[in-house]
Structures are given as structure tokens and as C-alpha cells.
Specification:
The chain is globular and about 55 Å long. The longest helix is centred in the N-terminal third of the chain and has 4 residues. The protein is mainly beta. It has a domain of 201 residues: Neuraminidase.
């Protein structure tokens, strides 16, 4: 269906097995926020310990082992005295963190250590213990398992009441959620991307090979998915998988899609990613990522 094009060859230590495939005449531009380390390659068990976001200054933020907050472009490090499970950074600059029971923002702690320290100041309780918080379009969702009903539930955070309000109940495990409020809601179950709108569920896309691990959405750019080996845009009940790589972490902000390659320490920005909405899914343009390093 697509012509796979090697963006960086497998013999190159920068980004092995990485492909970038774009429509002809696409306005998408490549910008390296952080170029890959020349000969660095983290083993999978270490690279999976990162979480990734872009803050209000468009700086990359890494959460490592749930205890260190790192800005890799400035080298600034904060030690977290709480075990942080998740972090979300909305496009309006709001950055929140969760532990196993609460959600809140970070406050500095007075300490004589060389590394600044911080802890979570709670603003709300999670719907259930170990609920996972995720980012939508100016929306924070919580994905939970209700042990009493044995069902999976999605909640929307109401920033006026500081309460999570239930939006959806589903029988099968929900892997990912995104959307805007309660009115535009997408979630992933297995290989399926599903839309929930006006109380109705519609299966809008099925990945042919892999489970969908993450969904990203905003009204400007559209709906994107990530699997263990690819990133794509979902459109008109189909998809274009324009990145093929291994275990990348992806963050959508406005019209840019940021891709963190934890195994080599590189961070790539794809500008004007909303332009993909203007194309069909068959015409391909070859992009050599290495030329942009």
C-alpha cells in the first residue's frame, strides 16, 4: 500500500530501522530539537523508563524512572520526592502530574541538595487508585479500571470543580484516550481506534498488524496514533503511517508532532503536521532525516 523509504539506513547508528513517508508536496518540515547521540544506544529496558512532553516554552521535558524531571536541552534536573506515575502538559501551558491516588502540580521543596527537589501539591483525587491521566485537546482524561463492575472507564477533568466526571464505560481494556472534552472522544482497544460521540460508539480504524498504544488529537491537526513500530494519522476511516520506527514516544502540540527516540536520545519536530489532512493516503515523498541532522 505504501512505498517504505529508508530515511536513515540500518547501518547508521543514529536511527536504525527508521522510515519517514510523506505525501508529495506536503508542507511538513523537519526540525531536530535534539540531534541523536553519535554512538549512544540505550537498551530497551532503559529506554522504556522515559515519559516525554513539550512544555509551554516548547522545551522538551523527560520524566525518567518516575523520579527525575529533565530538560535535555538545558541540562536542568529536578528530583521528585513523590513517585510520579504520569505527567501531562496542555497546549495552554498547564502541566500536571499524578501519583497513584492524586493529580496536582509541582512545588519546590527546601533542601540543601545539589539537585533541586519538588513534590506534588494535590488539586484532585483520581477516580480510582492507579488511574492513568492522559492529554487531550485542552483536556485531561483519566483511564481507570473499576474493580467492582469489572469495566473500564474514562473520566474528564473539570477544572472548575477540580473533579473527574465519567464520560465512558467499556467492557474491554482501554489502552489510550484523546479528544476534546466529552463531546469529541477517541479511545483505543487492541488494534482498533474508536470514536465515542453523542452516546454512540463507532469503530473508525483497525491497524493491520499491531495494537494501538497511544492516541493524540487536537482540532487543528486531527487524530494520530502510535504503535510499538509506527506513527500515523487517522482520516476518513483510513490511515497513513508516515513514521516507522521502534519504541518512539510521541507528543502532539498545536500543529507540531514531536517524536522522542529514547534509545538514541534524539527529539524530532515535524512542523505543519496538520497539512496531512489535505492529502490522500497514496502519494509518497521521500524524506532523508539524516540530511537534516
Amino acid at each position: 500500500m505504501f512505498l517504505p523509504v529508508i530515511a536513515v539506513g540500518e547501518t547508521n547508528y543514529f536511527l536504525p530501522k527508521t522510515y519517514l513517508i510523506l505525501p508529495e508536496q506536503s508542507a511538513v518540515k523537519i526540525n531536530w530539537i535534539l540531534a541523536p547521540e553519535s554512538k549512544s544506544y540505550l537498551p530497551k529496558e532503559l529506554s522504556q523508563k522515559f515519559k516525554f512532553a513539550i512544555d509551554f516554552k516548547n522545551d522538551p521535558i523527560l520524566l525518567y524512572e518516575n523520579s527525575l524531571l529533565i530538560n535535555p536541552t538545558t541540562g536542568y534536573i529536578i528530583k521528585l520526592n513523590d513517585t510520579v506515575k504520569e505527567m501531562v502538559c496542555l497546549d495552554n501551558g498547564v502541566m500536571l502530574f499524578s501519583n497513584s491516588e492524586q493529580i496536582g502540580y509541582l512545588v519546590a521543596e527546601k533542601d540543601n541538595s545539589l539537585i533541586p527537589q519538588a513534590k506534588i501539591k494535590p488539586i484532585a483525587k483520581l477516580p480510582f487508585k492507579n488511574s492513568k491521566i492522559v492529554k487531550g485537546d485542552e483536556t485531561i482524561y483519566a483511564v481507570s479500571f473499576n474493580s467492582k463492575t469489572k469495566k473500564y472507564e474514562v473520566f474528564v477533568f473539570n477544572n472548575k470543580t477540580n473533579l473527574f466526571e465519567k464520560a465512558l464505560t467499556f467492557n474491554e481494556p482501554i489502552k489510550a484516550v484523546s479528544g476534546k472534552g466529552k463531546n469529541i472522544l477517541y479511545f483505543a482497544v487492541g488494534r482498533h481506534a474508536i470514536e465515542y460521540k453523542n452516546g454512540k460508539i463507532s469503530y473508525i480504524y483497525e491497524h493491520p498488524r499491531e495494537e494501538i498504544q497511544d492516541l493524540m488529537y487536537n482540532e487543528i491537526s486531527g487524530l494520530f496514533y502510535k504503535t510499538s513500530k509506527g506513527v500515523g494519522m487517522i482520516k476518513d476511516n483510513g490511515a497513513i503511517e508516515f513514521i516507522q520506527t521502534e519504541e518512539a514516544i510521541v507528543f502532539l502540540k498545536n500543529t507540531s508532532l514531536y517524536v522522542f527516540f529514547p534509545n538514541v536520545g534524539g527529539i524530532l519536530e515535524l512542523k505543519n503536521i496538520d497539512d496531512l489532512k489535505n492529502f490522500g493516503l497514496k502519494v509518497i515523498k521521500i524524506i532523508d532525516i539524516q540530511q537534516n541532522l
